[in-house]
Amino acid sequence: MDINKQTQPAKIFIELILETFRFNGLLISVGDGLTKELGLTSSLWQVLGAIRETPIPMAQIARNMGLSRQGVRRSTNILIDKGLVQFKENPDHKRARLIVPTEEGRKVLAQLEKIQVDWSNSVSKEFSENQLKNVIHTMRFLSEKLYLL
Amino acid sequence: MDINKQTQPAKIFIELILETFRFNGLLISVGDGLTKELGLTSSLWQVLGAIRETPIPMAQIARNMGLSRQGVRRSTNILIDKGLVQFKENPDHKRARLIVPTEEGRKVLAQLEKIQVDWSNSVSKEFSENQLKNVIHTMRFLSEKLYLL
DNA sequence: AACAATATGACAATTAGTTGTCAATAAAAT
DNA sequence: ATTTTATTGACAACTAATTGTCATATTGTT
Questions:
Q1: Distance between CA B120 and CA A11 in Å, rounded?
Q2: Is B57 inside a domain boundary?
Q3: In chain A, what is the straight-line distance between the N-terminal and C-terminal CA atoms, in Å?
Q4: What's A82's domain CATH number?
Q5: Is the CB of B35 under 7 A from strand C?
Q6: Which candidate from B5, B114, B145 shows the least CB-CB separation from A123?
Q7: Which end of chain B is more exposed for a tag (fewer CB within 10 A), N or C?
Q8: Residue A70 within any structural domain of the chain
């Protein structure tokens, strides 16, 4: 039996994976740089950002952001120590308390947003909406395929 | 002065970042699943894969793959313990020895490649070459912008 | 209503990865 | 040629993240 031959799209897909790793790493390091002054790391602002609009429990943050439940728990503990978030009883679930930003947390979120807006504006300046949307769409589509396998 | 308003591409760019985090996490977990039987984790096969064609020193692996030098060192040590790679004197650089696969390492690389070919073929089946290339291109373009800032 | 299956968060132990520092080597500048 | 700057890899200390297990709460089944 012959060795299966790798199709052309498959080769490019592998390239895409490696590029994703690099891009992801770059985003994290740039993100860390941007928010260093706020005393936040990527894992922290990912969690803080996740409850910007609606307070949700840890497990849901994990699901939304593609993080592990335990990782979110850890980050949440740190954010609590920093006084940026707190627990709030969840009427719908006795165990799964909501994570909500404190007053201080809201201030940091506002600063975060300011930084993010300036930065994202300047980075995305030369890109069209469609170009970026296409990337997101393809990633999501690929993700679906990955889940199925 | 008004708060800077976030442009539409900027908003989508932020979405793209979050999607990248999720996609990256998914790739790692799927990759770990695929290569579990070989006793390799993502960080390990990233390093092993990097020297598939040409043996290079640790620092170069790190640069190519967007990993930290120290992380690569760690992975390399593990791969050496597992007997999959070894050092080889580098005529061009006394300090920076080349990392080369052992006989056993080459076997694992072959298995890895087999798995990778089957998997990438099946995932990328419904994607056009161009669609994937566009994603890579956009990521690289974004990366350039990120470096400049 | 009773039971089974799933989701959630806590904790401990382990593994993975980073940071800071150092000495050796190589490359670049003068 | 000499000096300065970069790169490279090693090591140790530290921080981050994962894994496995457990008790509790919720949801789904019968």
A1: 7
A2: yes
A3: 24
A4: 1.10.10.10
A5: no
A6: B145
A7: N
A8: yes
